[in-house]
Automatic annotation (TrEMBL):
InterPro entries: Aldose_1/G6P_1-epimerase (IPR008183), Gal_mutarotase_sf_dom (IPR011013), GH-type_carb-bd (IPR014718). CDD domains: Aldose_epim. GO terms for biological process: carbohydrate metabolic process. It comes from Mycolicibacterium sphagni. GO terms for molecular function: carbohydrate binding; isomerase activity. This is Aldose epimerase. Gene3D superfamilies: 2.70.98.10.
Length: 300
């Protein structure tokens, strides 16, 4: 495999670096603090490129997590999703998973400096993408690395009279090298828990989730939430390292994924809960009113 061109951002005030691959879906492959890698590499880059096996920080677009069937209705129209076509991939139950932009090469870098990277994807100009998500718009990522923090802002700008459903998310795999996973402490703000069925689809029931703080031990998570407040802070700590995941704005839902067989925790900002494209529980970007969301990974 030929090496893909990368962009390495550098924090002017610390040894923190972040590496992005614009031609591989704007994947963030590394967040390194003086050589210490803080992103879970999982199966590696090749598995992401060939099979959409996630690693680092991928964008999940236009929907995060899974849908309960191969299609959805919007404004009286039906959209059919065909697995294997137009970027649609499925989970073990055959359900569409994590959108259509895994490793997508069509991003255009519009600004690049030592600590900032901005890139656009003209979704509306790509028939392959519109077949699965027929809402013309421009998707913009604006990424800044400064003051020991990686900030990612996402803007969805409609390019026709059609509003654009906002159901996307990101999947940051966080890890603390040199400290046993069992000794990591996870903290969350008060949230609302969304129980799921055996396919991972929310049942419609809800449970209150008080503020949480505990060591992982041998505990695993694969849990969805909503009612995440703007500015909500999740933390992962271990040894002398503290990683904060801040839901700055525009991400009212979250997924926490901490498999027992891997030394990582994903704290996933989501614009809407799992299966929102089918339930209609989402906000939209309206013509003339671009929708902006943001999250920050801050190191202490």
């Amino acid at each position: 495999m030929a090496e893909l061109p990368s962009v390495v951002l550098r924090d002017p005030s610390s040894p923190l670096t972040a590496t992005y691959l614009p031609s591989a879906g704007m994947l963030c492959t590394s967040l390194s603090d003086d050589g210490v890698e803080l992103l879970g590499q999982r199966r590696g880059l090749q598995a992401y490129l060939s099979d959409a096996k996630t690693m680092g920080i991928p964008i999940l677009y236009p929907w995060a997590n899974r849908l309960s069937a191969n299609g959805y209705d919007v404004d009286g129209g039906a959209v059919t999703l065909t697995p294997g076509v137009g970027g649609v991939r499925t989970d073990g139950n055959g359900l569409p998973m994590h959108g259509v932009l895994a490793a997508y090469p069509g991003w255009l870098v519009t600004e690049q400096s030592e600590s900032r990277l901005t890139a656009d994807l003209d979704f509306g100009s790509q028939p392959r993408l519109l077949a699965s998500f027929p809402f013309p718009h421009v998707l913009t990522l604006d990424i800044t690395l400064a003051d020991r923090a990686l900030t990612v802002e996402t803007t969805v700008t409609p390019t026709t009279a059609a509003p654009v459903p906002l159901c996307y998310g990101f999947h940051p795999y966080l890890t603390i090298p040199g400290v046993s996973r069992s000794e990591w402490t996870l903290q969350t703000p008060p949230l609302r828990h969304l129980p799921v069925d055996d396919r991972g689809i929310p049942t419609g029931d809800v449970e209150e989730w008080p503020a949480f703080s505990d060591t992982l031990g041998d505990r695993s998570f694969d849990d969805g939430f909503d009612q995440v407040p703007d500015g909500g802070v999740f933390t992962l700590t271990g040894g002398d390292r503290r990683i904060e995941m801040v839901f700055d704005h525009g991400f009212p839902a979250a997924q926490i994924f901490a498999p027992a067989n891997d030394d990582l925790v994903a704290i996933e900002p989501m614009a809407a809960p799992t299966n929102a494209l089918r339930t209609g529980v989402y906000c939209t970007a309206a013509p003339g009113r671009p929708a902006v969301s943001g999250f920050t990974i801050r190191l202490k």
